[in-house]
Structure formats: structure tokens, C-alpha cells
Amino acid sequence: MVRVRIVLTRSSTRSGRLEAGLAEAGFDVAHLPLTEQVLPEETGPLTTALLRLGAGEFQWLLLTSGNTVRFLLDAGWGGTVPAGTRIGVVGPGTAHTLAELTGITERWMPQDHSADGILTEFAQTPEAAALFLPQAARAQPQLAEGLRSRGWDVTQAAAYDTVPVDGDLPWTPGPDDVVLLTASSAAKEWHRRGLTAGTVLAIGEPTARTLRDLRAPADAVLPEPTAAGVLAALNPRN
Hints:
Elements: E1 5-8, H1 17-24, E2 28-31, E3 35-38, H2 44-54, E4 60-63, H3 66-74, E5 86-89, H4 92-102, H5 115-122, E6 130-136, H6 142-149, E7 153-164, E8 178-181, H7 184-192, E9 199-203, H8 205-213, E10 220-222, H9 227-234
Parallel strand pairs: 1-2, 1-8, 4-5, 4-6, 6-7, 8-9, 9-10
Antiparallel strand pairs: 3-7
């Protein structure tokens, strides 16, 4: 039986539970980074927000990706929060990265692992509070705007920026490959380079929406980055 190759459009240095789960499920896993993450050119707002975090000025630290955790640490965060500060994560992947890199396991997480899930469940919180929301420099504004509309005092700061990988790619996917586009930035670069594959899967609705806007819709959309989600997308009748 021929093993299916799953191609992730991110660096192997960012490997996590998704890759491990795919390997356990019997897939060959390859990485073809289309973008890379770097600290933002202007780190002043992030540094200021981290100082405020350490001083206990925020009741919440809300983390929406594993990359955010990594770059907060790169920017000087010590991986701890004051006793009065709670931590929220968008989903299991971010929770895993947080625990792995900081040892923090006590965190809030919405049942629906998405920005919509955060908005729905934060809207049920009775008191307004100061909230630190570090995100990608090019993050969509809906989450921050939605939180503010619900009375939250949101401080945003760019934790990292995403830029295209320079130069030619070392190889390109083939007609038998399954490609996972891991973010909207990767989807845009995939389309810009004119790449194709046998099957294209989008992780999350924002990535899928980007592909639809580019008139290159994904074959299926994974609600969250898990091996089970990949299996369900490839075998929808099972």
C-alpha cells in the first residue's frame, strides 16, 4: 500500500502534535515552508505590554496561536503571569505549546476552538476587564473589535510578523500529495507561486476564506489542526 504524503506549509522547527499524529496515523510528513515568522520591526508596543503584564495590569492574557507564545518568549516574556492574571488559549495546539514552553497548564479554552468561540464565551463573562491580546502583525481585526464591543478593555500588540520565504522552493508538491495550508499567509503565497497538488486542505475557516477569495477553494476545511481532522477530510464518508 502506497503511503500518502502530507505536506505542511510551515517549517519543521514548528512541528507539534499535528505532525506526530499524522505520523502515528501512517502518513509520510514533509515540510515546505512558504512563509516564515519574524519579530515585528517595531517591538516597542509589545515590550510595553509585556511590562504591563508583569506588573499585573491585565486580568487576562489571551493567546491565539503557538507562534504567539514562542515570540512572546523571544521578546523577553519570562513565561509567567501574576497571580491575578488568567490565561486563555484558542485551542489545544496553543495550549500544548504553552505547556511545553512555559509549564503553564492552568488556562481557559473555549469549547469552539476559534475566534468565534472566544467571542461567544467571553461575551458570557459578567465583568469587563483589561485584556492583553498579542497577535500576528497582519491578524484580522474581528477578534479585538468583537471583544471591545462586549466591553473588554483590549490592548493589542504585534508579537510577530509573517513574511514570504525568499527565493525558489527546494521542491514542489506532486499530484499524489496532500497539502495542508496552515494559515491565510501561506494560502496567499501558495496561490502567488502558482502551486498545485492532488488535494489541498485548509486549516481553519480564515484560511479557507482566503482561498475562496483567490478563486482557488480548498478541497476541504479542517476546523482545527489535528490528525483526526485530516483523516475526516480525506475520508468524509467514514
